[in-house]
Write the structure tokens for this entry.
Amino acid sequence: MDSDHCLDLFLDHLRVERGLAANTIEAYGRDARRFLDFLAARSSALESCGRSTVMAYLLELSRAGVGPRSRARALSAVKGLYSFLIKEGLAKENPAGDVEAPGRPLHLPEVLSLEEVDALLAAPEVKDAGGLRDKAMLEMIYAAGLRVSELTGLQLGQVNLEAGYLRTMGKGSKERLVPLGDEARDWTGRYLREARGRLLKGRTSPYLFLNRRGARLSRQYFWRRVGHYARLAGIKKDIHPHTLRHSFATHLLNRGADLRSVQMMLGHADISTTEIYTHVTRTRLKAIHQEYHPRG
């Protein structure tokens, strides 16, 4: 089987049938060509390539200093090439089919300090209904570590201020209970007494937090409000609603909460997802050690 001809057919498929952009096709072509050159150097045929050969290719890329992101893209090109060849009857199996993409570098989430959280939560002007609503929302998203979609989707029946908890539906339609602290309870109660009715203006809605038309708030609107209050608070970091969720988890762990409890409050199905926050706390511990230890 002529590998150059197979590559040409593959790229034509990407261009004509899949309609991919020219730069995307070019990237696929470069990665596929590099793989074919690797096979040629080993005198390996395209149709008889096995999983071990694909693994050897990825290892060679790693030794050549190719980063995880680029290696993952290279693997994607190999998988795509063989998927096409199988579809065309030119190959029987995909040797890269069950090869996992190389792990990408860990990007730690942006986290606010306790002082920055205090400044952010103090930023809303609570004299009007909108400001009081924003104050309650900021307190609640930080107190409960909610996703922004969970916050804006909260309904009245999901919040029990007297008992001090809320019930939310997270990813995969999994329900969880999350405790609320006194500040979140107090400000949400004040919002319900003083502001929600003013926003409703005689209308009805099942949602807890409302816009000025008495309807459910959008995620995009709250995103903008968080940025607005961050600027008012003098916070230089590029923050968004999820930053408060990250901060919630990190601050709990920094103060001694166990990982399993934080996992339950965040609604993570797999504890490995929660473990990213232990990297944040380790980074903080290392910084403290370096700053204060005599031999840090």
Summary: The first strand starts at residue 159 and ends at 160. The radius of gyration is 26 Å.
